[in-house]
Sequence to fold (101 residues):
Amino acid sequence: MSVWIAIGATAIGCYLAKLLGLLVPAGTLERPAVKRLSSLLPVALLAALTAQQTFASGNHLVLDARGAGVAGAALALVLRAPFLVVVGVAVAVTAGVRALG
Fold:
C-alpha cells in the first residue's frame, strides 16, 4: 500500500506545484531578473543532470567511456556540427572506448 501512497503524494505535489505557478502574479513574471533566471535555469538543470548521469555510478565518481563520449560531443559542438552529428560522435566515441577497454 505504501507505493500507492507515494504515487498519490507525488500526484498531489505535482498538482500543487502547477497551481503555485498559476498563482504567481503577472507583474512578478515580467521582472528582468525573473526572465533571465527562467531562461538560464533549464540549461543549468540539464547540464547538472548530464554531469550526474555521466560521472556518477551509485555513490562514486567514475571516469569511463561515458566521459569520453561527452568530451567527443563537446568537441563536435565547438566545431558547430549539427545535432545528429554530435549525437553520432558521442555514440561512436563511447562505443570505441568501450571496445578498446
